[in-house]
User: Fold this.
Amino acid sequence: MKRTAKIQRQTAETKIELELNLDGTGQADINTGVGFLDHMLELFTKHAVVDLKVHAVGDLQVDQHHTVEDTGICLGMALREALGNKAGIRRYGHFTLPMDETLVTVAIDFSGRFALAYQAPVPAAKIGDFDSELLEDFWQATAANALCNLHVLLHYGRNSHHIAEAIFKGTARALRMAVEADPRMPGVPSTKGTLDG
Assistant:
């Protein structure tokens, strides 16, 4: 069974087309108009070992917020669709990732319920021309639409780029673990028999 999704979402603020293959090889085709987000999504794709295509057109003349948040919404929607009823997956994933002087732990549970615990303050208000506060907004949008629990913890770090990169790579590695097939769990990994909330 193919674990893929195609999302098309258009509002007065953004138009986004996103394709996801959970069983890909790490191929990225990313163009959101936000260079830093493109870079982070390329890292995410490689470390999650998924195939991800994102083409976005947003109101960047206003700022980057709508494009970044709406891309997160679409990624979350795609994860939810591609996972289906979640039968046979590990469900939980976690990873502690070092990035030079930075250390981040990410844990994820595809429980069918949304929760975000985000403790990763970024020292700089901007990374290049990217608003650092949008990092949390992106992951909130993703987790809310994937209906997963996502915990992000920055243990320590000085460089804002390294912190952001560690979060994206750590989330990718945790997600990779969570969506892997579990040969000892052929059904839905829950005593409730469902992971729909």
Q: What stands out?
A: The chain is about 35% helix and 30% strand. The CA atoms of residues 68 and 138 lie 6 Å apart. The longest helix spans residues 160-179.
